Amino acid sequence: MPASMSNLLIRALFAGLVILASAGCASNAVVAPSAPDESVLAPAEQALAKARAADADTFAPRAVDASRRRIATARDILYSAARANRELSDTERDRVEALVAAAELDARSALTQTQAKAVQTKLAELQGQLDGSAAAATEGER
Predict the structure, then answer these.
(1) Cβ-based burial of 78 (10 A; exposed 0-12, middle 13-18, buried ≥19)
(2) Residue 139 pLDDT more than 80?
(3) Residue 63 contacts by C-beta under 8 Å, 6 or more apart in sequence?
(4) What does the alpha-carbon distance between residue 89 and residue 115 come to, in Å, rounded to a whole number?
(5) How far is 23 from 142, CA to CA, in rounded Å?
(6) What is the rounded CA–CA span in Å between residue 1 and residue 7?
(7) Residue 112 in contact with residue 49, Cβ under 8 Å?
(8) How many C-beta atoms lie closer than 10 Å to residue 95's C-beta?
(9) By the 8 A CB rule, do 81 and 95 touch?
(10) 67 within 8 A of 51, measured Cβ to Cβ
C-alpha cells in the first residue's frame, strides 16, 4: 500500500470518527431545565420585605420565619417542576397559591405586631413624660 493511499485512508477514518463523535454528542445533549416563573411569589415576598424593613425580625421573629419558610416551600415546588421540565400540576399550583397566601398573611401579621410594639413603646414613653411633668407640677405647688 503506497504512503499516499495510507495517508488518505487515515484521513478518511479520522474524518469518520469526528463525524460519529459529533453525532453522538448531539443526540445526548442535555437540555438545561427552564427557570420557573417566580412572579407568583411576589405578593408574599413584597409583604415580607415590608415587614422586615419595619424591623419585624426583632419584634415578630416567628411570623417572619413562618413567612420565609412558606415562600421557600413554594419556591421548592416551582423549581422541582422546572427541573423535571414540566408544568405544575393542578395540585402543585393550588399548594403554591395557598403557601403564597399564607406567607403573605404571616408577613402582614409580623408587620402588624411590629407596629403594635412601636405604638406600645411610644405610649409608654409619653406616659412617662406625663408622669414626670405631673410630678414636677405637684412639687412646684408645695
Answers:
(1) buried
(2) no
(3) 51, 56, 106, 107, 109, 110, 113
(4) 39
(5) 104
(6) 10
(7) no
(8) 15
(9) no
(10) yes
Contact 31, 85 (CB under 8 A): yes
Q: Which of 67, 30, 66, 62 is closest to 48 using CA atoms?
A: 67
- Expressed in angstroms, the distance from the first to the final Cα of the chain is 130
Which pLDDT band holds residue 129 (cuts at 50, 70, 90)? confident
> How far is it, in rounded angstroms, from Cα 119 to Cα 114?
9
Taking only the tens place, the pLDDT of each residue in 54-108 is 999 999 999 999 999 999 999 999 999 999 999 999 999 999 999 999 999 999 9
Which SS3 state, helix, strand or coil, does residue 84 take?
coil
Which residue type sits at 7? N
Q: Nearest CA to 72 among 48, 108, 55?
A: 48
d(C-alpha 120, C-alpha 112), whole Å: 12
Return d(Cα 99, Cα 67) in angstroms, integer: 9
C-alpha grid cell, residue 102? 399564607
What grid cell was written down for 67?
A: 413567612
